Amino acid sequence: MKVLVLAPKARYDAYSADNPTRAKCELVFCDREADEKTFLAAGADASALFVTPVTEVSESLMAQMPNLKLIHSEGVGFDRIDLAAARARGIYVCNNAGCNEKAVAEMSVMMMSMLVHRILWGDRMVRTGHQDEAVHELEVKIPKDLANCTVGLVGFGHIAKATARLLNVYGSKVLYWTRHRASPEVEEAYHAEYRSLTDLAQQCDIVSLHLPANPETRHIVDAAFLAHMKPEAYLVNTGRGALIDDEALCAAIRAGTIAGAAVDCYEPEPATADHPLVRLAQEYPDKLVLCPHQGGIAQSAFHHAHEMLFSDLQKVMDGEKPDHIVNGL
Predict the structure, then answer these.
(1) Range of 49's domain?
(2) Rounded to whole angstroms, what are the CA distances from 39 to 73, 81, 206, 324?
(3) d(CA 71, CA 238)
(4) Is 328 within a domain?
(5) Do 66 and 114 belong to one domain?
(6) How many Cβ atoms are within 10 Å of 64's Cβ, its own excluded?
(7) Is 320 a catalytic residue?
(8) In 3-state terms, what secondary structure has residue 97?
(9) 252 and 303: one domain?
(10) Among residues 110, 76, 23, 117, which one has the least CA distance to residue 240?
């Protein structure tokens, strides 16, 4: 089976070189930043397409790949793939749900800790020769730590649950919201209490976003949501950039409605120098932690992801349904 891969060959050589299914396939690699014409020149006859979560897969591209049976995201995200077009053509779309849960959860908690401990501010104070002043300021206004923070998880999938487990270790109180409440057994296992979205915003010291991007979740954090948050609260986003209305977030930070934010994803991506949050960080360098969508870029995540990629591919090769379908086929 021919597979068109819109991702670096070096990554596949590092994480799936010995995979038995890969040995049965012809993998053709193409730069994901290229255009559709280049993709098609490389692999219009491919039966499977592997893409990064930020790679757009349009109806036009599918229409020109007549043998296509499977489109698989390398990661968790799949919002850049035209799911309806794939479904109409009988093409499975899959993702690697849970492949990076530990890495992204670690990133989420690290960003929370950076905010509550004012790490960016402390780093700047020491670099500019003001360590003594920083210590005196902290002694006057001692910051919270995760042990006495209430953290609200918006979404309660693989990554949110892994984040809850880490927060349990620190002793944080964990609240969560999701469209479909978890069972009492799950809530007990993760020491997490369900709240409405408004109650969660009002009660939490940190709100952490863990939702996919879709029409229902787009700008779920808007001006109304931010108005419910406490002035000393922080927002963390390791989900998708589209979850936040950036202009509303910028207005809230400028007005002091919330204390700050840490984000690892943007709308659109890649974030350029004129992105609203990048510009805001120049005004308020101590209130925003900006990361380059790196939470899921970890060795453990890629090992797991490549196992899932080729497991689903093998099922398609055997005429079976893959395990991680996201477009309802």
Answers:
(1) 2-99+298-317
(2) 16, 15, 42, 24
(3) 24
(4) no
(5) no
(6) 14
(7) no
(8) coil
(9) no
(10) 76
Task: Count how many domains the chain has.
Answer: 2
89-137 confidence digits (pLDDT tens): 999 999 999 999 999 999 999 999 999 999 999 999 999 999 999 999 9
Among this protein's residues, is 117 annotated catalytic? no
In Å, how far from its chain's centre is CA 56?
A: 16
Q: Which residues of 209-225 are buried (b: 16+ CB within 10 A; e: fewer)?
A: bbbbbeeebbebbeeeb
Q: Is residue 215 part of a domain?
A: yes
The pair of three-digit structure tokens given for residue 233, joined into one six-digit string = 């609260």
Tell me which of 36, 137, 187, 269 is the catalytic residue: 269
Query: Can you say whether the dihedral through the CA atoms of 298, 299, 300, 302 is positive or negative?
Result: positive
Identified catalytic residue from 293, 304, 306, 324: 293
Residue the block writes with tokens 């948050």: 229
Residue 130 catalytic? no
Q: Kindly name the residue from 240, 275, 306, 324 that is annotated as catalytic.
A: 240
Q: Amino acid identity, residue 32?
A: R
Task: Return the pLDDT at 54.
Answer: 85
Shared domain for 68 and 116, answered yes or no, is: no
Q: What is the pTM of this model?
A: 0.86
pLDDT at 76 over 90: no
Confirm if 229 and 254 have CB atoms less than 8 A apart. Answer: no
Question: Which residue in 102, 91, 95, 90 sits closest to 78, CA to CA?
Answer: 95
Structure token digits, residue 73:
């995201």
SS3 at position 31: coil
**CA torsion sign, 66 to 70 to 72 to 78?**
positive
Q: Do 128 and 276 lie in a common domain?
A: yes
Report the chain's mean pLDDT, rounded to a whole number.
96
145: domain CATH number?
3.40.50.720
pLDDT digits (tens, 9 = 90+) for 14-42: 999 999 999 999 999 999 999 999 999 99
